[in-house]
Design goal:
Elements lengths: L7 H9 L2 H10 L4 E2 H5 L6 H13 L3 E6 L2 E6 L2 H38 L1
Antiparallel strand pairs: 1-3, 2-3
Helix pairs in contact: 1-4, 1-5, 2-4
Length: 116
Amino acid sequence: MVEYVDSSLDRIFGALSDPTRRAMLRRLAGGERTVGELAQPFDMSFAAAAKHVKVLEEAGLLHRTIDGRSHRCRLQAGPLAEADRWLAYYQRFWSLRLDDLETALTRHHARKRSRK
């Protein structure tokens, strides 16, 4: 039996898998926001927004400070670099494969033209 180990990369991609959370991060890129401000464009309750914020917080993508009833959130972009490194590997992988395909197609077309 394979045992599943939750890594930070899993939490990051899990948090990014939801469009509402991605939109919240986008808004936080513009500056600090309250949970209520993050909830406002989605017409959702504070409780629903707080659940999204908690997922982002657990993934390390935002930092929340609580001052009385005010919950202020700030983007923590550092963990996105880990996800970017993971994605960059596949970007290089596919770029190389597409370059190989282009070379093969160019050679194929050149051979076809030389036969005529």
